[in-house]
Every structure is written in C-alpha cells, then in structure tokens.
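queue> holo job accepted (NAP)
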Amino acid sequence: MNGTVLITGGSRGIGRAAAKAFAKAGYDVAVNYNNSAKAAETICGELSDHGVKASAFKADVSVRAEVDEMILRIKEKLGNITVLVNNAGIGEQALFTDISEEMWDRMFAVNVKGAFNCAQAVLPDMIHSKYGRIINVSSMWGISGASCEVHYSAAKAALIGFTKALAKEEGLSGITVNCVAPGVIDTDMNARLSAQDMEILKENTPVGRIGTPEDIAEAILFFASEKASFITGQVLSADGGFIL
Ligand code: NAP
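queue> job finished
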C-alpha cells in the first residue's frame, strides 16, 4: 500500500530528498513548508514528473491550528495521509549558559511539538483505517549529545522517547512509528559550520564522507515500506558509523 505521504519541512534538504524518493516509489506527496514557498512549489513540479500527485502546503508545524487546517486541505486534495514524516526541524549552536528561555522553547516547539501536532492530527484517520506509518527525524546528537547544542540534543532525544512510546500505543492499530537518526548531512542546516569544522566531522565519520540528503531519504522510505511492517519503535542511525 502506498497512498499519500506528508513530509514536514519538505521544501529543502532532507525533506526535499525524501519527497523525491517517495514520489519515485509511487506515493502522492504533500510537501509542507513554512517559509520556502517557492522551493516547495518547485519541488512539487518536479515530483509530478513521476506521475504522482504532489502539492505544497504551508504551515508552521509548531502551531496546532495551522497544522489542523493543513491536514484538512491535504485530505481534500490528496486523500487520507497514510505516511507521516516528521522531518521539519531547526538547529542552533550556543553555549548552554547562553541559551535563552525563548531559544529553548522554540527548539522544542518546532522539533518536538511539531511532531506531536502532526501525529495527533493524522492519527484518527490512520486508526480508523487500521494502517499508518509515522517516521520521525531525530539526530545522532539526540543519542549521544552534542556540546553547544544542549537544547537541540534534548529535543532530538525527546523525539526518540516519543517514537518508542507512540509505537507501543499504536501497534494494535496497524500503525508503526519509527525514527531515523542522521549523522552529519550536507544541507543548509550545516551551512553555518566552517569548512574546517566540516572536515573534522568528515574525519570522525568512519565511512569517510559527509552524508547526503538522499542517504537519509532511503532510510525514511524503508520504514514506510511493507518490508518494514514488523519493525516499530526503532531508531535507525544513518550516520556513516559516527555513533557506534
Ligand atoms: P534544512 O535544510 O535547514 O531544512 C529544514 C526544513 O524544515 C525546511 O524545509 C524548513 O522549511 C522546515 N522547517 C523549519 N521550521 C519549520 C516550521 N516551524 N514549520 C514547518 N517547517 C519548518 O534542514 P535539514 O538538514 O534538511 O534537516 C531536516 C531534519 O533533519 C531536521 O529535523 C534536522 O534536525 C534533522 N537532522 C539534520 C541533520 C543534518 O546534518 N543536516 C542531522 C541530523 C538531523 P522552510 O524553509 O519552508 O521554512
């Protein structure tokens, strides 16, 4: 069963690559974006080349009312959502002592509450049809912790707990909930890092390279596939061996 996938933060980076992978696999694709309207429209045009339906939907995932309204629009245009990819996220580097309450709250609002909002909005239909796939995009830093990224690491660790708990609750409803924990991936999120920092990260990656958005897209697609129907509550590290 393919159906319709909603990819949050599908306008750029990993989400964009996931949108392409799902379209290639025959899914209709709802591309969520917040600020990058033009990029989202462009990717939808490209996805249509695969003979599937694809549309862009604006919503700040941290705002429940925007998410609920987006889900209604997706259902009208593309039908019920069978796969949810909670990919939208923000990153930030700061000394722990410099993290303001506002920075902390925004980190959790987008990375954690965004997943809560979207999962709660799609679950009634998934439960009703006794089928669903939810895939959360965490980070290797949610497993191991990153210095100067305490709020990011904590939010990504929260997504792992969210994944495991929801997997237990929804298993009998035919819904699997899994998590991908990427390593260092070549996207805008890492654009703020210096070339020297990227080189160090590359050297610390056993496979000897930085990951591509496509590397992560394939891991996400796997969890959505029938091949993964007996796998739930799992965290798949796609990090070139960085965290072992
Ligand atoms: P990116 O290139 O910066 O893209 C972030 C995406 O998230 C954009 O599409 C952006 O949409 C969307 N987004 C941000 N805030 C949003 C909001 N409030 N509502 C809806 N969409 C929002 O980042 P990326 O590297 O692809 O990261 C994707 C996910 O992978 C994130 O969860 C990130 O934490 C995780 N991750 C990334 C890495 C890495 O090395 N890159 C490693 C581990 C985990 P707009 O541009 O439309 O606002």
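queue> Residues 10 and 16 are 5 Å apart (CA to CA).
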